[in-house]
Every structure is written in structure tokens, then in C-alpha cells.
Amino acid sequence: MTTSTRIPIDLWHSSSYRQGHPIDQYHWLLDNAPVYWHEAPEEIGGGFWAVTSHKLVKEISLDNKLFSSYAAGTMLYDMPEEHLGAVRAMMLNMDPPQHNRYRKLVGPQFLPKRAAEWQADIAQLASQIIDEVSERGECDLVRDIAGKLPSYVVAQLLGIPLEVGVRLYDLTEVMHSAMDSVTDERRAQVASDYQAFTAELHAEKTANPGNDLASSLAHAELDGQKLTSQEFQAFITLLVNAGGDTTRGLVGGGLVSLVQRPEILEQFRANVDELMPTAIDELLRFQSPVVHMRRTATEDTTIGDVSVRAGDKVGIFYAAANRDPAVFDNPDDIILDRNPNPHVAFGGGGPHFCLGSHFARIEIDTIFRQILTRLQNIELTEEPTWVPSNFTCGPQHAPIRFTPSPKAADLSHEPSR
């Protein structure tokens, strides 16, 4: 796809993401300006470089010395120095070697073998979620299915009630909403509610530890010292945000895209086992639930053939890189058996490659198997509405209907014929 005619470029305001990714903008940038100076309001610290090519996104991701996460955080807006300290306590906003030490603290919990141990529990949760809607024949795909599974998994990882995990879903949705879509008062209230939750969780798990990740973190030591309350909160925030919005956006957005392409959906349904491994990667590429991350240039340098100054903001747009025609044939098509598929939906490599990628794959596999085998004749009853965010991409509401079916427990007790 070649788009040489100049089109308006706005990757900042939430209006550009009203119907999902601004695909036309991505293609224009990829064809004409893969390193593009993007003007932005002064109240967020001014403009930034928007980097969209697959090659350059990977190069920047791998070079944490030239392109820092720690210098100013990973969001495109600048924040006051007094807030930056708290943000830097989160592993996402660290550079090596500090990042490496923190990652080692929780890394073993997310290794493939450890994630695989959760497979049966995740399958049970997914079955329970479909049981809650199967007999009704209609539901909100996002709130009732796509958002439930990661909320439940995060709750079990942290050792908190499932309903609290769902409450955290609502908080993260506001956290990730664009600055122009949520009032400062609402954002401040959510931040206060979330801080109160993490402080209470820290106190509870310190006093009454269990066999869960929150307890492990409450009693963990780094360089001989227990984590501070702020460090504990930063870990929990990263886990809840990264483990919730992303899987929710992928499952919700992925299924909406499949329902809108019924022949592809039926191809998937008819070949679940054969297609699932490659289909997961294709939906990750196509949906790209994380739109971008910010890096800050630490010295004068070049990106491609463009000169960048020390201190400049650099936005690496994973969603655009995943549509790069230099890497992906027919990038706007869903090709369930696409192979190879070097997408950057989990990051472009380097120290910040998604720690929870193995959990995410298990969740995606499990919930899609449940949907494809138990919910027949799925159709949208209204146009989906999308989360008003330039940071994560996924539907906020997507009402669907389907052929009602029994709960899994009822199915297991059907007499044999």
C-alpha cells in the first residue's frame, strides 16, 4: 500500500483512535516519513519524533544507552520532576543495570515453565467466564469476556478476590486513557484509589503472606534491603497495567476483527489446533494492543537519516511497525498462518521485551479456544466503541450475540448417544 498524498498526521489526540488504529496515518508515515517530527501541545512538553519503521523501532528498542526509558519515563507527555521520581520506581521506566536487577527479582515467576504451571487454572477461569454468558446468547465482548480473563488471572497472581481484579480493570482503563479524554479530577481520583489499594495490599501481604506474587514481593529483598512501599506499588502497578489492558485489547480487538471477517473466523474455528500458534502471533501483530512507548535521546544522534538532539522525545510506534510492508506482505490482512511473523507487539527486543509474554500467550490461546468452540454464530449488535487512548488500543464496548449454549458443567454431564 503506497500513500503519497499528504494526509493530516495526529498520533496524539484520542480522536485519531476513535475506531482503533489510525491505519492510513501509519501507512503515510511508513511510505513518506518513517522518522517524523510530530508537533504536540506545549502542556505535554511539546513535540516528539514518531518512529514507525519496523527496522528503526527494533534498533531503538535494543539501544538503551542512546535511547533511555529512565530519563523522562515512557509516556509521551513530560511530567513534573516531583512525579518523575515515583515513575522511575517502575521497572518499565528503568535502564540497565538497574532494570536488570529488578527484572531478576520477578523474572522467575514469568518463565515459560512457571507460566505453564498456570495453564489448568487459566483454562478453568476461561471456562467459568464463558459459562457466565453462554446461556444468555448475548453479552458485551469486552467487559464480560475479554476483560474478565486478564482481570481474574491478575487477581489470582496477586492473591486478591476476583471482583477486586475486575475493579482494577476500571482503574487501568482510566490510567491509559488519553489526556484529552479524562478530566484531571477523574485521573487524580483514580490515582488516589489505586494508591490506597496498593498500600493496603502491601500492609496485608506483609502481615499475612500467602503463596502469591504480591506476598513474594512484599518480602523480597533487593541488594539486601526489602522493597519500599513505593517500589512494591510500582511492581504491582506494572503487573496490573501490563497484564490487564494489553490482553483485554488483544482479545477484544482481535475477535471484533475476526467477526468483521466471517470467512477468516470460520477458517479459524474449523482449524483451531492447527492454526492457533500462528494465529496468536498474527492477532498480536494485527491488533497491536500497545500503540507506542517513549524513549529520550541521551545525546545527539541520528535515527535513519534524521538528526536527533540530546533530550528529544522519541515515540516508537509498535502498531505502525507491525504494518510495515517492507517486512509484512499484505499487512492489512489477517493471515492466520502467517509465518514467519517478526511482529513487535511484545516490544522490539532488548531489556524491555514483555516479561509477561508467556502468560499472555496462554491466556489468548485459552480464551480463544473457549470462544471458538462454544460460542457459535457470533455477530456484533452495535458498532464497537474504542478506549479513548493513544497508548493502548482495544474496544471499550462491543455488544455481541450468539447462539445460546449450555454451561460447560452441563455439557460434561450430557448422556452419551
TrEMBL record:
It comes from the Bacteria. This is Cytochrome P450. InterPro entries: Cyt_P450, Cyt_P450_B, Cyt_P450_sf. Residues 397-417 are annotated as: Disordered. The keyword RNA-binding does not apply. GO terms for biological process: cholesterol catabolic process. SUPFAM superfamilies: Cytochrome P450. One of its GO terms (molecular function) is cholest-4-en-3-one 26-monooxygenase activity. It comes from Antricoccus suffuscus.
